[in-house]
Write a structure and sequence with these properties.
Chains A, B: It catalyses: Dipeptidase E catalyzes the hydrolysis of dipeptides Asp-|-Xaa. It does not act on peptides with N-terminal Glu, Asn or Gln, nor does it cleave isoaspartyl peptides. Two copies of one chain form a homodimer. Chain A has 235 residues and is α/β, with parallel strands linked by helices. The first copy, chain A, has a single domain, classed as Rossmann fold. Helix content of chain A is 24%, strand content 19%. Chain A is built from seven helices and eleven strands. The interface between A and B is large, with 46 and 46 residues.
Chain lengths: 235, 235
């Protein structure tokens, strides 16, 4: 039975790293002494060690130890043995490239589908979808594939941002970008606003947090869904 | 001798498509009766024909005809015979994929380096850099390579947007994304604000328009440059 928290962002405005998610860690990571952290997305280019220390500080507040996957000689074995997994945000292209390079994409999918609890934030959430193709990140490295974990049967756009009605900027809005995605791809996309997350529990996918989320389907008008909506069959 | 206009955006707030660039077309496209339009980036998913009609309407104000590259049976030959080329904006991943699929990347580079005048806006400007890796667009399709035309010896970020000091949004700023790019890549990046463009004339690259641009170099603090700055040797 899958168990996961897939959060739009790690950090809310005026809060500490992972602060708003801390109350939910004891349930997701029940009886877990130590989680395996995937630091590959390296936000702002920080090192794997620095990033792991940041995660460790936050998880210590929930009484859970953290070890980075880069600290293991055999990362595949580390994933197989992990009590729980947390993938942090940063650059999705870099994260996906490193997951493939270390041969971790398939094994993470396998263990999570078999019950290893998983948490993702931002890029770590984006990769839980069918593909990374609704990321907001820059293609700073060329990954061998855009296919990702497919823990949910749709794509995720983290840090979803509504169009600013007062903007004079002509760069594409997020909604336009997702519309362009649907010109070539058919899976639904859920735009997760900061403060929202998807909970996977007993293989059921539910929208959590205080906010609505926005759902985009090919050739349909986008629509809002309320928190607690069941998204298990969004496809 | 190369001749080009590489514009951050096609359209300024409260203006018509290409309006602010029209005064510069007669000089760039001197003695040109008809330009070849590359509509592959398909903004918002519009068709090649619709997009070409939009470009034709704008160029008609400068007395120049427009034909879309998709209207030719042999697009490579069409590029070789073109009096001038204009590549419109939209999705850079789609544009680059289609340029490779139609075997046009090398031939466009070749004819432009040999003197065929070129104009790009947005995605059409992004591809004038060494690679498309500082695009803002979503990876809606997987291109065979991120390498692009290399008309200038650096990368370009079109629609450059300064951080909003009042934002409570935690998605990465443009500056953070470019910093992440420089964690893995060494070429400079120029952030072109909307209303700015690069002029290439007699192989000299100059910042044009009323605004400053922002230059990012690996392991250096970003800095502003004034309009009319010579960027020929930015590398």
């Amino acid at each position: 039975m899958m168990r996961a928290i897939l959060a739009s962002t790690s950090t809310l405005h005026n809060q500490e790293y992972l602060e708003y998610l801390l109350p939910y860690l004891p349930d997701l990571f029940k009886n877990v002494q130590e989680i395996l952290f995937i630091p590959f997305a390296r936000p702002g280019g920080i090192s794997h060690d620095e990033y792991t220390a940041r995660a460790a500080e936050a998880f210590s507040k929930a009484g859970i130890k953290v070890k980075g996957v880069h600290e293991y000689n055999d990362p595949v074995e580390a994933v197989r043995n992990a009590e729980g997994i947390f993938t942090g945000g940063g650059n999705t292209f870099l994260l996906v490239s490193e997951l493939y390079r270390n041969k971790l994409m398939n094994v993470i999918r396998e263990v999570v589908k078999n019950g290893t609890p998983y948490m993702g934030t931002s890029a770590g959430t984006n990769i839980a979808g069918l593909s990374m193709q609704t990321t907001n990140d820059m293609p700073i490295v060329y990954p061998p594939s855009f296919q990702t974990l497919s823990l949910v049967p749709f794509n995720i756009n983290p840090h979803y941002l509504d169009p600013d009605p007062n903007s004079e900027h002509k760069g594409e809005t997020r909604e336009t970008r997702i519309k362009e995605f649907h010109g070539l791809n058919s899976q639904p996309v859920i735009g997760l606003r900061e403060g929202s997350w998807l909970e996977i529990k007993d293989n059921k996918v539910t929208l959590k947090g205080m906010l609505q989320a926005r759902v985009f389907k090919k050739e349909k008008l986008p629509f809002e869904i309320e928190t607690e909506t069941d998204l298990t069959d969004l496809n």
